[in-house]
Design a protein that fits this description.
Blueprint (H helix, E strand, L loop, with lengths): L1 H17 L5 H7 L3 H4 L1 E13 L4 E12 L3 E7 L5 E7 L2 E2 L1 E5 L2 E10 L4 E11 L8 E6 L5 E6 L21 E9 L3 E2 L4 E7 L4 E8 L11 E3 L1 E8 L2 E8 L3 H7 L3 H12 L9 E5 L4 E2 L5 E3 L23 H8 L8 E2 L6 H19 L1 H9 L24 H17 L2 H14 L4 E2 L1 H12 L4 H9 L5 E6 L3 E7 L9 E4 L4 E4 L6 E4 L18 E4 L2
Parallel strand pairs: 1-11, 17-18, 18-20, 21-22, 23-28
Antiparallel strand pairs: 1-2, 2-8, 3-7, 4-5, 4-8, 6-7, 9-10, 10-15, 11-14, 12-15, 13-14, 16-17, 19-20, 23-24, 24-27, 25-26
Helix pairs in contact: 5-6, 5-7, 6-7, 7-8, 7-9
Bound molecules: zinc ion.
The site of zinc ion has 5 residues, from α7.
Length: about 525
């Protein structure tokens, strides 16, 4: 009996651990709750001083917003290992309640809908490393100099500064005043406005960001950087690296300019020209910080000097330069409203690599490259994750996301139209935060077709469509096996140069051998990411 109870208990525990259990902390961070949705951010001025010896940060953030309804409370976020020194509104100290990493700020009177508001939020503390990239890290370069960097996607920017730490709402512009020991340099986002020697051993770098920006993109890169630059038409391109990597960087970063030219050709002008484009060396692989892309890919091609997709294409370029810069269009300019829809950033950005390969090396290489992502796809869970709980979906959002867009190109089956669709997509949603539904609506409206069942199958279910076919006496019978009902997707049969489009449904239908002879019935699964199964 005891054994049985134990067995039941063990199976219950394992069942429990298979389900994702979300906490109040997840919801406070991940949902767009009432004290976030009652206001619309307009501006931040983040002022920080960073003490590398003590791993200590202190300063304030001036937060400006417009009220969207009458209310007397808003939510700002700051991880609870950092102290709140004071929150000032109209020269008065405000009261607040801290719940996990959320800070609910109370106003002594109701703030009226439409009113413009401003607080200054003072904070300080010893920083902690958290998250995949550390959040904020205090490291040393190869010469033993201080090297401090932030990278806080998912863990959240509130791991190092107070802000409205969510995805849908972005400030319209931002200032950063960063004080660092005067022998170091800070490279942040946007345009450097001034450097002031303060006389107490510190120097202040003021950066102005002229565009909406994701919180997680806001970054510090503090070190003994050296600088070189070039430009592509009106876009300044500034590079910051460690002095001992200068020559290697000059070689490797030569890829940046033709890359930007490719992306501009296919997705429209660089989205942040007033801020310029920057590539900044960092002690981790890389991150898409807006106008301040960080780079740590060993100044070598591939991913960490490996042909990481194994077909000889990824070694033709520097994966981090291309991928992280692709995010300037997909992630920074076009942003997902909720990270459950992060494929809008990662799937599209991974597809931008494929477009880059086609632009630089041609269609055959692009085809090889996109198909080399297939072994990386797991198909164990849907691309779109649970909403409102700040859960980063699995890696299928990258590789399957890109393969899905490649498939969509072949569904559209008109390359001129396809290039126009994705160019206009980047323009239509420039500086916007969107949902998957907006993407589907865009493609349906622009093509006059209904791709909803296709988007749903690829994004909302773990399985890709299975194309079943069987050879009978007079013809080939075909059908789709899918999770969605009424799945409508064309597929191409035959060799690359010479193929026929057929339109299977979930019902068996016959294609006569007079239409497509049996020996020519080759399913084009390099153009469509599907399972093709012959039923005997
Ligand atoms: Zn990415």
């Amino acid at each position: 009996m005891k054994k049985l109870v134990l067995l039941i208990l063990i199976s219950l525990i394992s069942l429990y651990s298979q389900q994702k259990i979300f906490t109040l902390a997840d919801t406070l961070r991940g949902s767009y709750g009432p004290f976030r949705s009652n206001n619309d951010l307009t501006y931040y001025h983040l002022k920080v001083r960073v003490d590398p010896e003590k791993k200590y940060i202190s300063g304030s953030n001036i937060i400006k917003w417009k009220m969207l309804k009458d209310d007397n409370r808003i939510q700002i976020d700051l991880y609870d290992h950092l102290s709140i020194d004071s929150i000032i509104w109209k020269n008065k100290k405000l009261l607040y309640e801290r719940i996990y990493n959320a800070v609910f700020i109370d106003f002594p009177s109701e703030l009226k809908k439409g009113s413009l508001q401003e607080i200054e939020f003072y904070y300080s503390g010893i920083t902690l490393e958290k998250g995949r990239f550390g959040g904020i890290t205090f490291k040393q370069d190869s010469l033993g100099n201080h090297w401090i960097n932030t990278a806080c996607q998912n863990i959240g920017a509130s791991v190092w500064w107070p802000n409205k730490d969510q995805q849908p709402d972005e400030v319209d512009s931002m200032m950063m005043s960063v004080e660092v020991p005067e022998d170091l340099v800070d490279v942040s986002n946007g345009r450097l406005i001034s450097k002031t020697i303060l006389g107490d051993g510190y120097a202040r770098f003021v950066w102005k960001i002229n565009y909406p920006i994701n919180n997680y993109s806001v970054s510090l890169n503090i070190g003994k950087y050296v600088h070189f630059s070039e430009s592509l038409d009106d876009v300044t391109m500034d590079y910051y690296v460690m002095s001992y990597n200068l020559e290697r960087a000059k070689n490797q970063f030569a890829q940046a300019k033709p890359m930007l030219a490719c992306f501009e050709k296919y997705f429209g002008d660089y989205p942040f020209p007033k801020d310029g484009y920057k590539l900044i060396e960092a002690p981790y692989t890389g991150m898409e910080h807006q106008s301040a892309v960080t780079y740590g890919n060993l100044f070598k091609n591939g991913y960490y000097n490996k042909d990481w997709t194994g077909v000889g294409i990824s070694t033709k370029f520097d994966y981090i330069i291309i991928h992280e810069s692709g995010h300037e269009w997909f992630g920074n300019s076009v942003t997902a409203n909720d990270i459950s829809d992060a494929w809008i950033q990662e799937g599209w950005c991974t597809y931008s690599e494929v477009v880059y390969v086609e632009c630089m090396f041609g269609y055959v290489d692009a085809l090889k490259y996109v198909n080399s992502y297939k072994p990386k796809v797991k198909n164990l869970e849907p691309i779109i994750g649970p909403k409102g709980v700040n859960v980063w979906p699995g890696n299928d959002q990258y590789f399957k996301g890109a393969l899905f867009l490649h498939t969509l190109r072949n569904i559209v089956n008109d390359d001129d139209l396809w290039w126009k669709l994705i160019f206009d997509y980047a323009q239509t949603f420039k500086y916007k935060n969107i949902w998957t539904e907006d993407v589907i609506k865009y493609f349906n409206t622009k093509t006059g077709k209904d791709f909803t069942s296709i988007f749903d199958q690829y994004l909302r279910f773990k399985n890709i469509p299975t194309f079943e076919y069987k050879f009978t006496e007079k013809g080939t019978e075909v059908r789709w096996v899918t999770d969605v009902d009424f799945f409508l997707m064309p597929v191409k049969i035959g060799k690359l140069s010479k193929n026929k489009v057929i339109n299977p449904t979930n019902e068996w239908q016959k294609i006569l051998y007079s239409e497509i002879p049996k020996e020519e019935f080759i399913v084009s699964d390099i153009l469509f990411y599907i399972n093709a199964v012959e039923v005997k």
